[in-house]
UniProtKB/TrEMBL annotation:
PANTHER family: FORMATE DEHYDROGENASE 1, HYDROXYPYRUVATE REDUCTASE. Belongs to the D-isomer specific 2-hydroxyacid dehydrogenase family. This is D-3-phosphoglycerate dehydrogenase. Residues 124-249 form the D-isomer specific 2-hydroxyacid dehydrogenase NAD-binding domain. Keywords: NAD, Oxidoreductase. GO terms for molecular function: NAD binding; oxidoreductase activity, acting on the CH-OH group of donors, NAD or NADP as acceptor. The lineage of its organism: Bacteria, Pseudomonadati, Bacteroidota, Bacteroidia, Bacteroidales. Residues 10-304 form the D-isomer specific 2-hydroxyacid dehydrogenase catalytic domain. The keyword tRNA-binding does not apply. InterPro entries: D-isomer_2_OHA_DH_cat_dom, D-isomer_DH_CS1, D-isomer_DH_NAD-bd, NAD(P)-bd_dom_sf. PROSITE patterns: D_2_HYDROXYACID_DH_1. It holds the Pfam family 2-Hacid_dh.
Amino acid sequence: MKVLIATVKPFAPAAVEGIKKELEGAGHQVVLLEKYGSEAELLSAVSDADAMIVRSDKVTKDVLNAAKNLKIVVRAGAGYDSIDTAYAKEKGVVVENTPGQNSNAVAELVFGLLVYAVRNFYNGKAGTELKGKRLGILAFGNVGRNVARIAKGFGMEVSAFDEFVPADKIEAQGVHAAKSRDDLFETNDIVSLHIPATAETRQSINYDVVNKLPKNGILINTARKEVIDEPGLLKLLAERTDLKYITDIKPDADADFQKFEGRYFSTPKKMGAQTAEANINAGIAAARQINAFFKDGDTKFQVNK
Ligand code: 3PG
C-alpha cells in the first residue's frame, strides 16, 4: 500500500525515520510531502495514496475526492477538527487519531508560556511566581491531566472541570473538581484551555465567561483558536487592564490583540506538539495503526464510526 505523509509542519527527522521503518517493515511504500504550499500539491500527492498520515493538515472534501484509493487517514495527534470526518465516513474512509501521544509536550508548553507571562515577558520588572496560585484546567483529557501533574510540581492549587468526566474521577487524580465551567473561571487565577474545537465549543470562551476570572487573571490557550470568541475577548481586554491572554495559536485578529502589549502573547507558530518526542510518539503510533488496519482491519482509534 502507498502511504502518504503529508505535513505542512514537518515531523522531526527522527520521527520520519521511525514512521518509515514501521511502514516499510510491513511492506508498504512511503511518500513524503512536507511544507507544501498549496492544496493543489496535496491533491496531486494524494491521488494514488491508500493511506495518509497528517498533522493539522486540512483534509477537505476536495482532498478526499482526489484520493481515489484512500482507505484510512491517521491524524498524528489529538484534534481532528481539520478533517472532514463526516464526508470521509460517506466515502468509506476511516479517520483515526493518536490520543495521548503528544499530550506531555503540549502540557509542558503551558508552563513555558505561564512562567514567561507571570515574569512579565522577561522585561526586567518583578513578576510573580506560580507556586500557591490557583490553576483551573478546562477539560480533563490527556493534556489536562498532564497539566495537573506538572502544576502540582510547581506547588499550584489545581482544579479542573470537564463536562464529560465525573467529579469523582477528577478528585481521584488529587485535583479539585470545579462545579461548573463558570465556577472554574470564578475560582482560579489562571485558566488553561484543553477543549477540542467542536460545534459546541466554537467561540464558547466568550466575554462573559472570561470576565469571571478574578483580578489579574490569566487565560492560556494551547487548544484551538476557534474556541475563542475573539471580538468578545478583545472587548474584555480593553475593559479589564488586569487580564492577560496567552496563546499557542495565533488568533485571526492577532493585529488587534497585539495592541495589548504586555498582556498578550502568541507563539509565532503553534508549538505545543513540536518536540522530537511528541513527533516520534504520535508518528510511530500513526504508522502502527495503519499497519494494524491493513493487516487485521483494526479500527480501534477510529473517530468517524
Ligand atoms: C493536537 O491536536 O494533537 C495538537 O494540537 C498538535 O497539533 P499539531 O500536530 O498540528 O502540532
